[in-house]
Write a structure and sequence with these properties.
Elements (H helix, E strand, L loop, with lengths): L1 E13 L12 E13 L11 H13 L19 H16 L5 E10 L2 E5 L2
Antiparallel strand pairs: 1-2, 2-3, 3-4
Length: 122
């Protein structure tokens, strides 16, 4: 199995519903996102996929979140915008985009801070 990864970031605000503590108040983060794409074989050039394609797909997805108040986006109206749920959202959207390329998402990791992150994989 081959795996390639791309890192990008976005900035957004959120607050956690039902949470007792500082994170129940509106606050923001500069999230870092890592997406891993997997394939059992390489293309004719010897790549899983061109990095620019993964970057294009991921940028399109992150544009839905960047500089937004996440609680007001359609996906997070009822789901808490935790790092875990953000990772799952990005995973599902990336999975949808990669379907036509016959590629698989290995995992998505979302860093809320330099030392705190969550990963989602199926």
């Amino acid at each position: 199995m081959f795996e390639v990864t791309v890192d990008m970031d976005f900035s957004a605000a959120h607050n956690l519903r039902g949470y007792r503590g500082k994170c129940e108040s509106l606050h923001g983060h500069n999230w870092k996102v890592r997406v891993a794409v997997e394939s059992k074989k390489l293309d004719q050039v010897g790549m899983v996929v061109d990095f620019k394609i993964i970057k294009e797909y991921l940028r399109d997805i992150l544009d839905l979140l960047d500089h937004k108040y996440l609680n007001q986006t359609s996906y997070f109206k009822k789901i808490n915008p935790t790092s875990e749920n953000i990772a799952r959202l990005i995973y599902l959207k990336m999975k949808e985009r990669l379907k036509k390329d016959s590629l698989t998402v290995g995992f998505v990791t979302v860093w809320e801070t330099d030392n705190s992150f969550a990963t989602y994989r199926e």
